[in-house]
């Protein structure tokens, strides 16, 4: 804590990982050698930079840009860019740290990184968003590369923003690879990448439910958020027979006891992805119920899929979900549950998967996009989807392997942390003190 003052999210992520790793490290003391843990909690490189751009009124605006290159131990730095006013060094360091373990869990050769800016895309014109993206890349470009660091999207960075940044990257580098993943299909993107995080979260939850002999069929599901991850979690959950009854954003929650339908989801996608509107606009269009200023967790459900942002589900929310009989919580977002909430789920015997396991499908499919780009091919939708399912099933199996407790229960937290750690740590030990 003394080395990282004012970085609560980073300290929270490190605490959560170290608490679950410690008993394992005591049994395997080689992982405490060569300063391994001290090295692992220190990003290899942090780049912070000024982003200046001109708004529609001719005024100069200044934002702060970041790229955290956390670990290259098993492959190029890999992780998304977040554009949101809540972005700080602490938030991005926590995300880059988590990303390192998540990427190891996918079994693909990707290191960990994350970046972004405190720029708020809400209310900005398309021209302003493009100029900001170009200004951001005019500095970022010198730090990234297909074998160095491969950025992608995250909160506030979707296909449109990746397109603008990849375009600027191409112009500055005079190279067609344009480095980013999550690109449009017409210039090197992968089928299924937009769907991958949401689909993958549901694939993972399916595996969790199987351990109790259950399926999604007929289960009530709450989803938080209404962005990229949330939308495709809703789509896949519906497809496997669940009744999805909530979505949300930072202004409140839509509660729809009749459940989502493909038609309603199409309206949500139109409102969020093309009109850049709010879930309240969606509620108005569909005649569904909107509750301002509340989160979805008071609604009784069998499965909860938090897909918005960090620390959006606290101990009180966990207690409410448990009281209402929740069976399974699988995180689509990164660290949406506080440490206390996560502990409460495990103590109550709820099937609980941390984001680094259950939301790894997005980055895994980004890894598949890198492979397709390297071989200058595009794989069919079915092939990418089948590989995604296989990777998520594999991560689930790794969690069972490393997360089994003496009483026969499974801690997905321990399983994901230990499985991810072992791969990164073995690579670091083999490569010496660097
Ligand atoms: P989007 O920008 O598409 O959507 C984000 C959603 O979360 C919006 O509904 C947004 O609401 C809500 N949200 C964001 N910040 C807050 C906040 N401070 N309080 C309440 N709600 C908030 O992002 P994604 O769907 O891509 O990302 C969602 C989560 O999933 C993040 O944690 C991200 O790191 C994680 N993730 C994303 C992956 C991907 O492939 N995209 C991969 C793995 C993890 P509003 O519009 O009101 O801000």
Automatic annotation (TrEMBL):
Look up the record and give one Gene Ontology term from the biological process aspect. glutamate biosynthetic process
The family database entries (SUPFAM superfamilies) matched by this protein are listed as: Aminoacid dehydrogenase-like, N-terminal domain (SSF53223), NAD(P)-binding Rossmann-fold domains (SSF51735)
Kindly list the residues the record flags as site (Important for catalysis): 154
Cross-referenced Gene3D superfamilies: Glutamate Dehydrogenase, chain A, domain 3, Leucine Dehydrogenase, chain A, domain 1, NAD(P)-binding Rossmann-like Domain
Q: Which residues cross the membrane?
A: none
Q: Which residues form a coiled coil?
A: none
GO MF annotation list? glutamate dehydrogenase (NADP+) activity; nucleotide binding
Q: Which Pfam families match?
A: ELFV_dehydrog, ELFV_dehydrog_N
User: Which annotated residues bind substrate?
Assistant: 78, 99, 102, 153, 366
UniProt xrefs under NCBIfam families: PRK09414.1
| Cited function | Catalyzes the reversible oxidative deamination of glutamate to alpha-ketoglutarate and ammonia.
Query: What do we know about how this protein assembles, alone or with others?
Result: Homohexamer.
Name the chain's protein. Answer: Glutamate dehydrogenase
């Amino acid at each position: 804590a003394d080395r990282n003052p004012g970085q609560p999210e980073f300290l929270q992520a490190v605490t959560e990982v170290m608490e679950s790793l410690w008993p394992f490290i005591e049994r395997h003391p080689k992982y405490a050698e060569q300063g391994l843990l001290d090295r692992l909690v220190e990003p290899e490189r942090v780049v912070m930079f000024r982003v200046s751009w001109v708004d529609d009124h001719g005024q100069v605006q200044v934002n702060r840009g970041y790229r955290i290159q956390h670990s290259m131990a098993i492959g190029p730095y890999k992780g998304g860019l977040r554009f949101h006013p809540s972005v700080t060094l602490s938030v991005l360091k926590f995300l880059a740290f988590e990303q390192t373990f998540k990427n190891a869990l996918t079994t693909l050769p990707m290191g960990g990184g994350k970046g972004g800016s405190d720029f708020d895309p809400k209310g900005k014109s398309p021209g302003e968003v493009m100029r900001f993206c170009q200004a951001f890349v005019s500095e970022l470009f010198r730090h990234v590369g297909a074998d160095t660091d491969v950025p992608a999207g995250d909160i506030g960075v979707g296909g449109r923003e990746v397109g603008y940044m990849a375009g600027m990257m191409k112009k500055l580098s005079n190279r067609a690879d344009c480095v980013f993943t999550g690109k449009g299909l017409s210039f090197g993107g992968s089928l299924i990448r937009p769907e991958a995080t949401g689909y993958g979260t549901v694939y993972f939850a399916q595996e969790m439910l199987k351990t109790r002999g259950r399926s999604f069929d007929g289960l009530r599901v709450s989803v938080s958020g209404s962005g990229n991850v949330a939308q495709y979690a809703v789509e896949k959950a519906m497809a496997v027979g669940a009744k999805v009854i909530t979505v949300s954003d930072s202004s409140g929650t839509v509660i729809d006891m009749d459940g989502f339908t493909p038609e309603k989801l199409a309206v949500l996608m139109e409102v969020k992805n093309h009109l850049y509107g709010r879930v309240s606009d969606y509620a108005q269009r569909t005649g569904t119920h909107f509750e301002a200023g509340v989160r979805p967790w008071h609604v009784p459900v069998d499965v909860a899929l938090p897909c918005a942002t960090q620390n959006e589900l606290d101990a009180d929310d966990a207690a409410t979900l448990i009281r209402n009989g929740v069976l399974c919580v699988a995180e689509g977002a990164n660290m949406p549950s506080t440490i206390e909430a996560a502990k409460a789920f495990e103590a109550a015997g709820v099937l609980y998967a941390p984001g680094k396991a259950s939301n790894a499908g997005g980055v895994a499919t980004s890894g598949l996009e890198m492979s397709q780009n390297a071989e200058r091919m595009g794989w069919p939708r079915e092939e990418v989807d089948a590989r995604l399912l296989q990777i998520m099933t594999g991560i689930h199996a790794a969690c069972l392997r490393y997360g089994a407790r003496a009483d026969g229960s499974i801690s997905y937290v321990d399983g994901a942390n230990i499985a991810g750690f072992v791969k990164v740590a073995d690579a670091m030990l083999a490569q010496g003190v660097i």
